[in-house]
Amino acid sequence: MTHPILSRIPILGKFVDERFLEHRKRSSSLAAIAGVFAAGGIFEYRLIAQHVIDWNLFAVVAVMAVVKMGMFTWYRVND
Questions:
Q1: 8 Å CB contact between 4 and 18
Q2: Model confidence, pTM
């Protein structure tokens, strides 16, 4: 089965296959998780070591967590 994007744009089928799209999805997911851990780690460091609440970092971690859980729920209900 070919991906819908690949069937609409024939030239992409020569360069992009299902494995490429799956690898891109997995690497993006891992990058997002690493970003959450990095932002969360910096937030915790500033909170514990410097006694400062960095609301910008908190917002980044919170938004990423809400989007992750929201999309997880959406796919679980609609799949």
A1: no
A2: 0.66
